[in-house]
Amino acid sequence: MAVRWRVVALFGLVALGAAPRGTSAQTLDAASRLLVQADTAAAIAIFEDLIDHNLRNAEAHYRLGLIHRARIVPDAAVDKNRRIAEEHFRYAARFESDSAKYLLALADLFRREDNSFTRLQVPRLIERARAAAIRHGADAADLTTLEYRAARVEWERYEHFGRRYLANDFVGAVRTGVSAFLFDADWRYVESFFRTRSRMASRDAGEEYRVKAEDRARAALDADPANIDAAGLLVVLMGEHDRWPEALEQTRNLVRVSPDSGRAWALLGLALTRERRWQEAEAAFDTALALMAPRDWAPYLDLGRIMRRGDRRDYTQMSAPSRAALDTTYWAAAQPLALTDANELRVEFFARITYVDHRWSDPYLNFRGFDTDIGAVYVRYGPPDIWAMFNRQEIAWVYVRARLRFLFNLTPGFTRARFGDFGREAARVAAERSPARFDNVPIFLALDTVLVQTAQFRGPNPQQTLVAVFSAIPVRRMVDSARITDLALETAVILWTGTGRELARHRRDNVLRDVPERDIRNESWYLSLPPNEYILRVEAHLPVLERGARSAAMLRVRSYETGGALALSDVLAADRVAPRDSNFTRWSDFLIGPNAGRFEPESPLALLWEIYNLPKDSLGTTQYTVNLAVTVDAIERHGWAARVIGGIGDAMGLSALGDDKVEISYERQVETGPDGTQVEYLTVDLRDAPEGTYTITVQITEHVTGQTASRTRVITIGSGPTTRQ
After folding, report:
1. Alpha helices in 507-662 (DSSP H)
2. Among 26, 244, 472, 554, which one is most buried in terms of CB atoms within 10 A?
3. 354-365 pLDDT, tens per residue?
4. Is 585 left (phi over 0), alpha (psi -120 to 50) or beta?
5. What are phi and psi of 627, to 5 degrees?
6. What one-character DSSP code corresponds to residue 58?
7. Strands across the sheet with 404-409, in order?
8. What letter would DSSP give residue 77?
9. pLDDT tens digit string along 391-403?
10. Tell me, what DSSP letter sits at residue 369?
11. Cα dist from 286 to 290, 642, 669, whole Å
């Protein structure tokens, strides 16, 4: 009894198609109309009446099975509807044993079972349905669906094989239990176990299932090259063995045949990300989001997936514009280097969402991969360093650098892995301590620190302040062991608003022609800015080596009013300060040896500052007292002293106040300009000062009105290299 095969949607209650012999098409149509009108009881009565008159009415059995399948309560231990649905699907498949539609319905029902023995029947049923469809000349769309479903079944079987490690000796872990081994054991033991008591898998243990899954996914694409689900599964399969160049070619073909599919462009973005082609990947994801429907783009714009629980709750209660503004600020701050013109962390987040959506989603059981336990962990932390399978049912993920460990249970035949014993609480604690990590992004992992000192001075008018920016770039550490041959080095100072919008960028292109003799490279930048709050970033980038360094900090630019109260500029600390000639009146009249605030032991410390709005006495001169104090903040304390060795010739003396502070005081009598501005400089030798952190305080007391003003500068004395973040 031949039946023209047609696939029905999983949750559809009516299957359209020709009625089998012995079945009244008019009666089936009447039942279908009742279902559309939500009169399910009347429709059931018609189907049961048809069966009473002809037990072998496969179509009536099938449609009754669909109704009861839709009534199944998920995760219920006992469900009458599940039993009734299975009974009717079995009858339909028995009476029309060559019908792909009925075999597929029974397979779908068995896929919902927790019983592994029941689920073991699914591959055989899918294969029978596939063979029947081919025999009866199924169209391309139907054949694509069946091939994809066959691919997913084989993929589910493959998920139960560890792809990273096989243990030589699990005695300790088995005796104490895997949960205790992962969560109660000292971290050093966990690390040692995977290093010394296990070995890398020498072969792909589930290779036969992986190969079958790939064959079926390719067959689905042969039938319909635009099938996104099949293409996504194929990309994931290729990624299992780092075949990303092949996946990239596959996704390029996909967007050629589906240029209007956002999901196709997202798969291209995933492949480009894994090939570290960040700018191209970012462009692909931007195109994807522009083309996607809300259901598809929503997870990509859900920053809450990598937030702490409380922050996520607040985030979900924000208005859409507020969430969008926060997203912009977050990703702007997280961007490793603005010099790369691609936000690698945001691209990586999009790649993770795409990966888990195609690896752990199930379109037939209606759940998305990023909503599963295992998918949520992947979105937060990326691919694990260690991926091991215990007893074909427990999956262990270990992130070595972050010292994170997760345990999942995976029932054979499923892909939805759930947290194991203690696993959910461990994941909650991990998310509070470290909401997200991007250790798999090369430039982020290798990101170094640029030391920065800023000093603000009065500008030509109250609407402008001059800001000196001194940076120390750790070029030797960035170069590391790489051979130098005209290596391009990009540096820049970048200003953002507090919301992450870029205001200005000052970039320099340099060439390193040899291994740097010094650990650091000093660079100076001079900016004229209106008083406001900014984010100041100083960056360095070696494009060829994918290495970078940066500093990012708030910069509050002050206003210096003319004729107001006594005021001081910032205290600028430098390697050297010397006037260009004897007619200096402003700080810009000096030659400055830039320093970012870290000085070698025994080296001189040059200081420069400006005083504003100094009043004149009756003789037209200005008198004031300068007090310079150097205080130990953090140090191995022992006696030390400081002495003035240059700059001002009439220093009055030195007093040492215990072992952690010295002061220098002197009197000044000068003739200032019309705006009451005076520039001061001196060089201090911190003789025998131990390595540590110091605060320098400059206080000015003018003698006409008794006003005082002060500024501080924190410096570090150390012989080692700059600290890496």
Report:
1. none
2. 472
3. 999 999 998 877
4. alpha
5. -120, 120
6. H
7. 198-200, 165-167, 386-390, 394-399, 404-409, 418-419
8. S
9. 777 888 889 888 8
10. G
11. 6, 59, 64
